[in-house]
Design brief:
Layout (H helix, E strand, L loop, with lengths): L2 E2 L24 H45 L3 E2 L3 H7 L6 E5 L5 E6 L3 E11 L9 H17 L10 E11 L2 E13 L4 E13 L2 E11 L2 H17 L3
Helix pairs in contact: 2-4
Length: 238
């Protein structure tokens, strides 16, 4: 049974960057004037560059948030995707619980030394009035979901990613998006191994998304989760 879904998206958080410089002690009065002038020019250049960078980041963030708000407020509905979940979860070694309410199959995974989650959903866009091309929808929704999913790994930042990959491609009337990253973080006492991936396919006016994240102190559990995500990807029709 398809269910209508509509939601509001929150405003972007502004990112503020600063730039500063140092002034070397002058050796003579005339040198002081020249050095100060050059430093001021450099500082103004740095501030201008920082301001331009901030403006670009803010503009892209606002554009992305606007798209997500439009996306969820358009005439979309969720399609049943439980068969894909059942097939992909066959043989999984993780303890799991599946909640398929509100159109999204939310899978909670538990291992011996860690845990994670996978969201699986299929959105029917056939009645949507979105005025964007396929690649734009894939990239923006994919980036949005990847950000939401990777944030599930508590305490992990971009600096903890040891590998990453992002790709968007389209052929005729279908396209796919994929982004993933591996995590390794040590605090001197223990090492955490993580993996997060978002895979999305837009075909026949249906957007299918698989997004998961897992964190464990056992590197082999991270490998098992990566293999499970591959099972989901293989079962998404493209």
């Amino acid at each position: 049974m398809k269910k209508k879904y509509s939601a509001m998206f929150s405003a972007a958080i502004a990112m503020i960057m600063t730039a500063c410089g140092t002034i070397s002690p002058p050796t003579a009065q005339t040198t002081t004037a020249v050095t100060t002038a050059e430093t001021n020019v450099q500082s103004l250049t740095d501030l201008s560059s920082s301001s331009d960078s901030d403006s670009k980041v803010d503009s892209e963030k606002i554009q992305s948030d606007t798209f997500i708000a439009e996306f969820f407020d358009s005439n979309i509905c969720f399609a049943d995707i439980s068969a894909l979940v059942t097939e992909a979860m066959k043989g999984s070694s993780f303890e799991n619980e599946i909640d398929n309410s509100n159109g999204v199959n939310k899978i909670t995974l538990k291992g011996s030394n860690g845990g994670g989650m996978i969201d699986v959903l299929c959105i029917d866009l056939s009645q949507s009035d979105l005025d964007h091309d396929m690649e734009y929808i894939l990239e923006n929704f994919g980036d949005y979901y990847f950000g939401q999913t990777s944030a599930q790994m508590s305490g992990i930042t971009e600096d903890d990613f040891v590998s990453s990959y992002r790709m968007t491609s389209s052929v005729v009337s279908k396209g796919k998006y994929q982004q993933y990253g591996s995590v390794q973080k040590s605090d001197g006492m223990a090492t955490q191994f993580g993996y997060t991936e978002t895979y999305a396919v837009l075909s026949e006016n249906k957007l299918t998304v698989v997004a998961g994240a897992f964190l464990s102190t056992d590197m082999m559990e991270r490998q098992s989760f990566s293999q499970l995500m591959s099972q989901f990807v293989e079962n998404v029709k493209y």
